[in-house]
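Fold sample X.
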Amino acid sequence: MTRVAPTVQTKALQATGPNQQIKSIIIIGALFFIFGFVTWLNSVLIPYLRIACELNNFESYLVAFAFYISYLVMAIPSAWVLKATGFKHGMSAGLVVMAIGALIFVPAAITRTYSLFLLGLFIQGTGLAVLQTAANPYITILGPRESAAKRISVMGICNKIAGALAPIILGAIALSDADALVDRLATMDPAQKAVELDALASRVITPYLIIVGVLLLLAVLIYFSSLPEIDTDHEDETVAAANTNKTSVFQFPQLLLGTLAMFLYVGVEVIAGDTIISYGASQGIALTTAKFFTSFTLGAMIVGYFVGIVAIPKYISQEKALQVSAILGALFALTAIFTDGYTSVLFISLLGLANSLVFPAIWPLAIAGLGRFTKIGSSFLIMAIAGGAVLPLLYGALADMLNPQQAYWLVIPCYLFLWFYGTSGHKARR
């Protein structure tokens, strides 16, 4: 999502006719679908592995930590990989890395070893870091600048539709009859319990082998596809005149505050999607029902995307959208804390609606005016996705110390900071 000079944009358009652009958008749309599908499988893996590997809340949310911390570790190395391979081959390599991570789930399930599951998740996140670093700016560059927002919105919808489907599909396999199983486990001796848990762990083997096959097939298709290679090497040269008095990216307060805002945003987005199944169960709702709740959260995000396509900037600015989203997020979270049962769970789902317009608002506000520092600034924002690693882990710790409902107090100061950034934080200049 880096800003691109007109010369680069022109080259891209000259290299791609309308038909080729459509084909390329379809291919990148498939990638965003994969992003969403693999990412939101975590919402099922958290309660599933909690049972299969006999974990507490804190330990189970290491699933999100292992997955999202890879963005912090791999954001800048991913940029190096793409510089060496180019966008197309880098995307293909990222898919292969994801396939390796998914394949590790097989020995992890056979041995019921939680650390192996976490290793597989970290490697999947590493592959996704490469893909995200490539695909986000690629879809921005691929086509006219004035229609970039429309392309990004379409990608977001592909991502969240996949995210809504993923927990339904994996939940039907991994959490089938989970409530009855938990009841039976409480009455079993250790030997019987081990047999039942081994059988439960083996449920993910076939789904993840299918995921490995799909990822490798898509990697081959992209490697040999007609996706145009877009050159961004000239970007820094064309904006070199900007910010001539600046010597460091740390001289841009709007970026540093925006990076913190992105960190907090991704954290609350992951909390809303990945905790809701376990939270529903803690409210006395059967897992056979609760396994659908993440899909409701992502469905609310899809509604928000459509609202953004229609309303921004015709009826509301990006800044106002961020402010309204933050206020709604805080109000929905407070309502969830002070109600119970299905009502409380509904308002956790509605956090998806509040979160939907935050990412597209933070990004342009954070990199505004960076000039030749835009690339490194964008890397900061990619690294900030690690908020999805840290905040859910804090939520898990609070859930163990207090309870899963009171742990949602964690998101209130996050939404307040997002409101601050939308009102005045993004205006900070040095």
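Fold sample Y, listed below.
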Amino acid sequence: MFESSDVLAVYGWDEYFDDAFAAYRAEGLAPARIVRVDRGRCDLVTEHGPVRADTSRVNGPCTGDWAVLRPGDRPVVTHLLPRRTAIVRSSASGRSQGQVLAANVDTVAVTVSLAVPVDLGRLERMLALAWESGARPVVVLTKADQVGDTAEIEAEVAAAAPGVDVVAVSAATGFGVDAFAALLTGTVVLIGPSGAGKSTLGNALLGEERLATGAVRASDGKGRHTTVHRELLPLPGGGVLIDTPGLRGVGLWDAADGLEQTFADIEELAADCRFADCGHHAEPGCAVLAAVEDGVLTRRRLDSYRKLLRENEWIASRSDARLRAERENRYRAISRSLRQKYKHEGRKR
């Protein structure tokens, strides 16, 4: 029978993680959720309160992870429980490895500022990451007080986000905040560029000034990274919130399923193409191109779809090449070891 402490339940502990932790329970270890990661150490919440622990024994701990903690005078994270969801992008270094932005997220709030022209291509890119994570995306249009009627913009955004709730808010006036909060469940993460108003919106959800905020440039609506760490905080209405630093670059990482959901309208049209492998360029009987000609689908959206598909295929090929290189390196290392072993044994004879 699944049971949990009130503290852990507030932070998202449920039967899924309880089952994953079962093997460690008899060893005197404790479950804990990572609230913040900082250079080999992290802050966690346990059923007995907050703890700071060493994370050098685990690979890639992230805010939102559920961890296995060895308590004591010097607490240590010994394992991470399997992630139910994870937001992953290409690493900022350009290496063929993914970077986890947040783990075990239930709702991804893609944050878009109305103080500057909406970049639909960026929005589609972030939605692909959100869908691929396994969480449910929501689009929140911030700074609605800086524009007039938002209905036209909301409709334009909704067309680029099929199957996703879109809501306009103003944290400054409170407009739309309650409607937005009603869409949120479980662990919520705010993602978007600097200056989108994530921290201001987070404070509105938290009901207090917990997150640092800063001004943005009037010329382009960009702001400084007032949020420098990913931090997890409990929401007064239930669930928890992860605020993230502004994303300058949003590279896809193995996001084929996320792209399929982001561009569900194009995928549906493509099912009626004459050829199963239609590339939607100039093929006869292409239902996608016909939709563009008829005005059902915009050329911009089709171009965005093609661009993101090419990018995802490229990063996937890099990942495959890296895995092949790692296998070859392991094979060579084993071969060298065997040669040295046989050479040594030959000398002994």
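Sample Y note: The chain has ten helices and 13 strands.
Also: The CA atoms of residues 213 and 275 lie 52 Å apart.
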